Write a sequence for this structure.
């Protein structure tokens, strides 16, 4: 790891990391893919009306953003991420091999889905996803905002995600006021 400390973001961490960092780099991880597979009971929904958020699920590959964190801020960054990502224990904290655009590899802290957790959705149909996302709101704001922000940021990075593209189109059709993503929330 060359003594460097990195964090891998694949969802809202890409557009709202919430911690200080020294640099960013486009990176990908193998063995996991970005999936809207987490029932959100806090940030983007409630237990009574769960929303959906992303997790890294087994199989495939995922492109995202790597953040290099100064050693002086590492402990507070990890503490912050644990509070943010581990609210209900749905993610497993792990270290993954990240491959940068220039071919260099680094280890990075990442949060993968715990498939044994009750908030893991398994496979949902697109109709089920739209139903969960539309109208769900949690402590960090409306669930459609989360999906639209993530999709918009992926497009800025040059990453095409067909599922998030379809969900974004369908959500805009349902909720025209959601046409422009904002910069807030998890």
């Amino acid at each position: 790891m060359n003594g460097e400390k990195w964090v891998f973001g694949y969802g809202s961490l890409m557009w709202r990391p919430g911690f200080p960092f020294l640099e960013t780099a486009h990176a990908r991880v193998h063995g996991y893919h970005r999936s809207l597979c987490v029932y959100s009971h806090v940030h983007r929904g409630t237990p009574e009306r769960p929303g959906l958020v992303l997790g890294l699920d087994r199989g495939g590959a995922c492109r995202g953003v790597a953040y290099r964190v100064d050693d002086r801020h590492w402990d507070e960054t990890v503490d912050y991420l644990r509070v943010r990502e581990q609210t209900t224990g749905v993610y497993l904290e792990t270290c993954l091999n990240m491959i940068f655009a220039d071919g260099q590899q680094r280890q990075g802290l990442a949060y993968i889905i715990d498939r044994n957790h009750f908030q893991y959705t398994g496979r949902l149909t697109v109709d089920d996803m739209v139903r969960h996302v539309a109208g769900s709101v949690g402590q960090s704001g409306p669930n459609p905002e989360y999906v639209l922000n993530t999709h918009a940021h992926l497009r800025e990075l040059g990453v095409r995600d067909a599922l998030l593209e379809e969900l974004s189109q369908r959500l805009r059709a349902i909720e025209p006021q959601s046409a422009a993503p904002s910069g807030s929330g998890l």
